């Protein structure tokens, strides 16, 4: 069990690590040759030029010593941009994501003052643990003296914990109510002021019933001309082009490795993947089996799209299923090829797989955590006992090692969860990230929180739970919670302090950019592609934030000493990620903060968990008079969640017809002659068809270089005009895919 001295050593190590990260970042970001690594967003917007283009030495190395003296200036710079300007610059998703950190600060700063003013004196002014250590040889740490463990059984002081629990609940609900109201208003204002985009006019229709007399394209056109005669405009059927996408991706990878590509294909141009791509493209175009029973259907107005997306299209509720289409860059095209009827089976398979993943992950976590402890090391390697018993080494092992081991052990989990979400069949990147985030949160709760609290292996824990009544489980967990406060404090410092500081260094993108820049970059376009700005990573970032909400609520009334560490995390993370959003991250999609109901629900879930565990803990303390008064808290919190769900959630799942009509009317007044069909015609063409056309152009532009370096004369390539491609719109007058791309470029 870590002592106050061990926590001090851990704090010193993590603060020093964070400081080193900030200093190294400050030096690296000031060097002109790293400009594209630390400011890629401004390059993508065309608002920044490369300082190395002049070729002078000072353009590669910053020789101004005064700039190094202001190495922390990026912090106030990150806070200077107002929120409306931030929304214009980075989008509503990014701005609302930052509000999650602000919500944590708003909730826990007042709570910290409250519990330190009331509960810390109530807990600390007892001598229960001191007497227990003398009489029963019970081991405890200095931190435990600030916790509820130091309050004797049947004490009237537990009324203070009950009253503070009520105050925490009311304050948290008040803050969440205001935030939900604010975010809902921000979303509606954002949608009202948002520029015209294809997803505002388009719905995705799935499970189109088969018809022996009509193709899918003809059937879709006929259905919507009959049922939406005044608003239907055009459509694009969905193709299973996954194999073609794989070939295009492979070819792009080979083109990036220019040295490898030249050496290999200049000797034998027939091996170029161009012809394979052309053949596969022709196969997709001519094979009816490549056409899926789904289509993107576009309407003349937002109002028409809103009516279609939010109503049932057929008396049979299992066919002609419509929903809002994701924006084109948000579509996960690979999953559109999954038959709709198989989605239920896939969800069942993944549900079972996730259960076993969550449960059996306890085994390696418990094993590694036991080895990372002082007792575990001495047991596994007795010869290390003289070394680990030294004071500083002992402090490092108890105060730093368990947290860093747990963080390293979970490093591959987000990738596993994202693969599971993709298999489940979600058709947008935003929905994939939201599902992965919800599973990551549940995994953290079961393995990181409960798994770290309850001692023993997974099978011992399962046996313990099986032979207990459900009412005893909160008691079991509640008793263990105070004893694990020091572990979570060390974990917060490793993950929430040093980990957040390491985020800004961007070591991996830095190394990859310079490797690409040295070996692969030949043109300005290559240099842009070498940049890896990344994105927020909602599937990993949001569950991390939610874990700190859980720790804050649970330990606020149990071990208040943990709250300052959590507040530092929220404040530091807000500054760091605000800087990254302004200068680095290039968001892959814009969902207009559609994730906020999930965020709100998970915060309230953490609050309910803390209330139930506090009841279990107080019941073991023989607080028979005060404990029953906590029963009302979960009931009130669940009622509050239902109230917010009914009051605000519709703003995140439905688009008001009034808003749609208003925006359509304004647009017709401002642009009366707009060609909506031309605007929407190529918006939802599968990207690989566009990419393959672009690759043809790339081949033509570089063919002379190929022929000069080639020993064998290249074979004649098929003209892209003669290559069959899928039609954008059914009917004889519909343009072919290349013509649609050329005449109506992607907006």
UniProtKB/TrEMBL annotation:
Bias kind Polar residues: ranges: 721-736
Boundaries of every CSC1/OSCA1-like 7TM region domain copy: 346-618
Keyword Membrane: yes
Boundaries of every CSC1/OSCA1-like cytosolic domain copy: 200-274, 276-335
Keywords for the protein's UniProt record, in alphabetical order: Calcium, Ion channel, Ion transport, Membrane, Transmembrane, Transmembrane helix, Transport
Protein's recorded name: Calcium permeable stress-gated cation channel 1
Predominant location category: membrane
Regions that span the bilayer: 12-30, 107-124, 158-177, 348-372, 392-419, 440-459, 479-500, 547-577, 599-618, 625-643
GO annotation, cellular component aspect: plasma membrane
Top-level taxonomy: Eukaryota, Viridiplantae, Streptophyta, Embryophyta, Tracheophyta
Subcellular locations according to the entry: Membrane
Family that this chain belongs to: Belongs to the CSC1 (TC 1.A.17) family.
Pfam families the UniProt entry points to: PHM7_cyt, RSN1_7TM, RSN1_TM
Membrane topology value: Multi-pass membrane protein
Annotated region described as Disordered, given as residue ranges: 699-747
GO molecular function, one term: calcium-activated cation channel activity
